[in-house]
Amino acid sequence: MCSVRFAFAIxxxxxxxxxxAAGVKNFDIPAGAAGPAIRxxxxxxxxxxxxxxxxxxxxxxxxxxxxxxxxxxxxxxISHGRRGWFGGHHDTAAALADAGFVVAALNHPGDTWRDTSxxxxxxxxxxxxxxxxxxxxxxxxxxxDASRINAQRIGLYGFSFGGYTGLAVIGGNPDLRKGLPNCAxxxxxxxxxxxxxxxxxxxxxxxxxxxxxxxxxxxxxxxFAEKNLKRIATPVQLWSSDPAQNADGLSGCCAVAIKExxxxxxxxxxxxxxxxxxxxxxxxxEAQVNPAACTDAPGFDRVDFHRSFHADxxxxxxxxxxxxxxx
Length: 327
Fold this sequence. Notes:
This protein is an alpha/beta fold. It contains 10 helices and 10 strands. It has a 10-stranded mixed β-sheet, sandwiched between helices.
């Protein structure tokens, strides 16, 4: 155990030396007719030296409340995975902020590590995409520095259930009905609800404001019909972990199926990566509390992978935002 902790400590220290400076601050979207209150964390470009911050056992390398630098900044919204939280991809958010993006991550109501009251339910599958639209509305209209955002350059990053969320937001039109193929063998509560005759309480409406999307290990994938995926016009960079690491039942399970439906996605297969290898590098404390999410395959270096991963996603967003601005 000591050697494992030492290895994580060394990896974490290496991450700190390469970490990006970013401002960070909490905000709240109030409850209203559109839905319950939403807690969010926003990273922004920052000119001050970074600080080490402890957040629920995770260490962020950022500046609390740093004044935002820059104008007409692109916005990236982050959707976390099942039972995740808005800080699960904090190193990715910091890397994007350091590259000149405003990054807003939310806690999806009813499906976080703290509140699992609606995890896997039909209501969560329906409301997650609506959460993203509410987040974009807030960032463009009510966020204190809303005037600094370029509303024509909005991107999305979605991991796992957040990948499902992202595909729904950009027009994937998930098929949520009784008799859905593969639902009968799924453990999702939503599948049981559909088979019992429940129906979505509201339509899932795409958000055309999202101009580019990073989709990582999307789950569940079986709700997306190929014909619906082919209608997606938004540029997608699709990432897959390695099915050879599928002991968790998630690694490499779903991105290939989505890839076959999308039209020319920018597809990346990461050999030897596990599903949770896309989460931020763990501290020793996090590794002790949640070893499944913090333990990578032998020989896989999460710190090193995230350096190249971040470079690729920054390049993807810059490329497509530049193209969307072309006459």
